[in-house]
Amino acid sequence: MTHTVHPYAHRLGIIRDWKSRWFSKNAAQYRENVMVDAAIRRFLKKRLRGSFITSVEIERNDKAIRIILKTSRPGLVIGRGGEGSVKLTKEIEGIIRTVPKAERKAVRLDIEEIRSPESHAPVVAYMIAEGLEKRQTFRRVLKQTVEKVMANRDVEGVRIALSGRLGGAEMSRAEEIKRGRVPLQTLRADIDFAREQAYLPYGVIGIKVWIYRGEIFEKTENKKLKTNN
Predict the structure, then answer these.
(1) Are residues 83 and 128 in the same domain?
(2) Domain shared by 46 and 127, yes or no
(3) Does residue 81 sit in the same domain as residue 139?
(4) In terms of C-beta distances under 8 Å and separation of at least 24 residues, what long-range contacts does 111-116 make, across chains too?
(5) Do 189 and 145 share a structural domain?
(6) Which of 26, 62, 87, 100 is 20 to 30 A distant from 133 in Cα terms?
(7) How far apart are the C-alpha atoms of 59 and 22, rounded to whole Å?
(8) Does a structural domain hold residue 4?
(9) What range defines the domain where residue 100 resides?
(10) How many domains is the chain partitioned into structurally?
């Protein structure tokens, strides 16, 4: 019996690192940290929708929580003179206070800019949702998006799936478009995956995006160290 595995989780420890990096002393602290992380991610997903956020990484030590936002539009998040980042930090501290029994820690917000946003699945998924919410036909949105993604030299394959009441039809259905290769079973394949939703008057349309950016091999230095040991 087969199981569908998230492409990110499938590659943890191989070519991917964890998005939440911290250790807990006991089960109670672990539970609190997980609840805080989930609350922060839910808030940022809603608050920064449209800011082209590709990932949210959380690190902890004894004194502070470090949140790393990777975005292709850092100016929207930082704001004039850093006002946006300061306001966002205070809002995150307020969200942490709403979690019961959560330990109060200082919040440090780091914003990193990414290059070639069309090679990142969360950005592409939001571009599709934006096009659908502007009432463009879904086939046109799919074709234009695939062409933009494949025009990037880092991308070797892309697959996009839509599901819902496409075109306002009474019955929901699924449509898919694919270009190039997307080897989901190859663990060294650098595949970025994202889900997004387009909110339309006649219902919600689900969007899934897979982007294949080639294979990642170990560095020669690491290989030499392993062979020597």
Answers:
(1) no
(2) no
(3) no
(4) 111/69, 111/71, 111/74, 111/77, 111/78, 111/85, 112/68, 112/69, 112/70, 112/71, 112/74, 113/70, 113/71, 113/72, 113/74, 114/54, 114/70, 114/71, 114/72, 115/72, 116/152, 116/154
(5) yes
(6) 87
(7) 6
(8) no
(9) 19-113
(10) 2
Q: Exposed, middle or buried, 26 (CB in 10 Å: 0-12/13-18/19+)?
A: exposed
- Measured CA to CA, the distance from residue 1 to residue 3 in angstroms comes to 7
Residue pLDDT tens, the chain, 229 long: 467 889 999 899 999 999 999 999 899 999 999 999 999 999 999 999 988 999 999 999 988 999 999 999 899 999 888 899 999 999 999 999 999 888 888 999 999 999 889 999 999 999 999 999 999 999 999 999 999 999 999 999 999 999 999 999 999 999 999 999 999 989 999 999 999 999 999 999 999 999 999 999 865 444 444 445 5
